[in-house]
Known about the structure:
The structure is a homodimer. The first copy, chain A, is of the alpha/beta class. The first copy, chain A, contains eight helices and 14 strands. In chain A, helix 2 crosses helix 4 (about 65-90), helix 3 crosses helix 4 (about 65-90) and helix 6 (about 165-175) runs parallel beside helix 8. Chain A is globular, with a radius of gyration of 17 Å. The longest helix of chain A is centred in the N-terminal third of the chain and has 25 residues, at about 65-90. In chain A, the strands form four sheets. Chain A has an eight-stranded mixed sheet with strand order 5-8-2-1-11-13-14-12, with helices on both faces. The first copy, chain A, has a two-stranded antiparallel sheet with strand order 3-4. Chain A has a two-stranded antiparallel sheet with strand order 6-7. Chain A folds into two domains: about 5-180, Acetylglutamate kinase-like (Carbamate kinase), CATH 3.40.1160; about 185-245, no CATH class.
Amino acid sequence: MKALTVSKIGGNIAESPEKLDAFCKQFAASPSPKILVHGGGVLASEIQKKFGMVPNMIDGRRVTDAETLRITVMAYAGWCNKNIVATLRKYGCNAIGLAGCDASIIKAGKRAPLNGIDYGFVGDVTPGCVNTEVLETLLSAGLVPVLCSIVHDGNGQLLNTNADTVASSVAAAMGAGLDCVFEHAGVLLDQNDPESLVNELSYSEFKALQAAGTISGGMIPKLENGFKALELGASSVNIGKTILKI
Amino acid sequence: MKALTVSKIGGNIAESPEKLDAFCKQFAASPSPKILVHGGGVLASEIQKKFGMVPNMIDGRRVTDAETLRITVMAYAGWCNKNIVATLRKYGCNAIGLAGCDASIIKAGKRAPLNGIDYGFVGDVTPGCVNTEVLETLLSAGLVPVLCSIVHDGNGQLLNTNADTVASSVAAAMGAGLDCVFEHAGVLLDQNDPESLVNELSYSEFKALQAAGTISGGMIPKLENGFKALELGASSVNIGKTILKI
Lengths: 246, 246
């Protein structure tokens, strides 16, 4: 089998009809085996607000009570997943939309309260949680798994998790390349200058740029996650056009 | 391969935690190849109301504008589907939750306006719409497809449809037995007397009972659908404990 790629798209693509269509057209055209990972946080927050709820995010992770879980499952595994699959089918991609509970692709533990914070129905995913055998079966049948970041505990409980972590864990477990499709060209030394793109980044260079304040905010967990995937078995990792090196 | 059964459950089971748990325990225990079909209309109506919308049903079919479509996809393919899958997994069933867009299991046409009524994003499903090859592939891999009544048109458009029609079309296309799991024991001659169960029912007997007013209401489309499945290739059909005969 040709080298497998795990692509991860964020809400800026998954939840914009025009960007999603353009992405799906390009993704469908690649002949290699592939898996697509996504979340659906923008839609989940929109529904929470329509339900009169206030989304409660701590460090980018949604505090998930029973009703919030139902909403995230509806948003991620329902509309976002099936809308992506239908759009991929339009471009001839043999997509199959799944959550981590399906065929037990990802069985995770419920996160224990951390530093006094109970995140509720949130799962912690590691490469060891990934059922690589069933993914191989689906890929061998010529299917393209489209995986949302809803997982289960194996005992009937669905759990909400994070698409970056799902993507890096799947890539590491499958020894695949991880392609984080990103709203910017990649890691930039100057956010306002697309010419300042970093082509290759090592972990020590990342840490130096972080210490200098050049890399900050949401880029830090994204890069930490990418380097972790490399360390745990991903064959390559890129954030946009920036290639990570251990 | 042993004989395949397509089971269809209604909202009374799919949307009641206790009944769903009991059903899943029993369904998981059956060793034969099987497919489960469900909708999610109760939850869809609940969300429509929370969104300040008024569900518009004509002859049991939901008039589906773009926002209603998004809600039905979230309800059927999101919460209902994944909750059923997680519950089946608890009982060791290798369930995989899917909608008709996934692997293009069901590609249908958008219903044309009928008698002046535009149903919107509603699909009409027939046995010819069913991709039997991909269902065989999944079943051969030991997976149990859990299929909700959301389909697609192959050109990027999701469509809402009816779980009874999906179940009968899949059973007919696969030459499978159709088991409509039902809130009553089966077809009753007296709704208040479970002892009045009809063990076997032919189409002419059905029509005579309908003419006499003994069979009425929602039972009529359910039986029409069952007899149609038999006619189009299902190996057997039962509505609860009542076995249909051509």
